[in-house]
Fold this sequence. Notes:
single chain; alpha/beta; Quinone Oxidoreductase, Chain A, domain 1; Rossmann fold; seven-stranded mixed sheet; six-stranded parallel sheet; NADP; fatty acid biosynthesis; lipid biosynthesis; enoyl-[acyl-carrier-protein] reductase (NADPH) activity
Amino acid sequence: GPAEVTVRFLVAPINPLDMLVLSEVYPVKPSHHLNGEAIIGYDGVGEVIKCGPDVDQLRPGDKVIPAKFGVGTWRTAAVLPALSLQKLGETPADLAFAAILRVTVAPAYCLVEDMATLRPGAWIMQNAGTSAVAQMVVQFARMRGLYVVNIIRDRPGREEAVVKQALRELGVDLVLTEAEVATPDGLAQLQARPIMLALDSVFGASGQALVKALAPGGTYVQLGFLSGAQAQLSLDASDVFGRNLTIKAFRGTVQLALRSPQQQADLCDWFVGLFNRGLLQLPTLGLSRVDWEVSDGAAAEAKVVSAIKRAQDAALGQRKQILV
Length: 324
């Protein structure tokens, strides 16, 4: 159509959010369908191939990311309304970074900037400490003069030491396993620090430990249910009244919507500029790249389906998969 563009998708991640969409439990539904099936993929980066006559904000060759959820990036090409796409003012040195801007990088920034008033020297604590979002939170926290505690799942033997060292090199100040947090010594280490923001991606017992560790006046933020939506977390009067804790839920779409489209575009361009200058990096613990550019369509589909199954079946700690 006259206000549409043809886009070739270059890189797209498989996010936990996408798994919620596949399970039909995420509130923002896919906007596009093919043969009656929803087209998944809420983040990614593409290149404009052709523009309709009424499109003046995009040109062939521009790199674009979704301007909203539901665009459907798990495909090789699409014809989309120009207004559903956001132009990148600068192309990142690695397109994988552009592909995680909306669902990973921007939410991490909002978690650090929006959820609590944090002054230099304050501490953030987060579980699912090897997740891509958690690793980006660490980087934004360091820019603000904040300290970070990452809680990771228990791992066998040397793997645990390797993961802890990688997180320390990224800038994490204290790394504890879930088992260590449950010990008196682990809790004492946490309570000795002024933890003012707790970011809970796991819920249940892990989230309960975050609540216990918060300093008076701290903020607990729930952003995921990796332990299962049936898990529970309890609060008592001493938490809400005695320690004056603030309890919040986080959705990246809601936080980004507080900013105008131009502000969102400016943020993403700032992120890319930081990345290209070496001030931000892709998650240290890595992305698993899945090559889906093969001439055999059936083989490409099989690779994507296999990657999705890995994402659905994975234990905590699996690397984020990127379709390239």
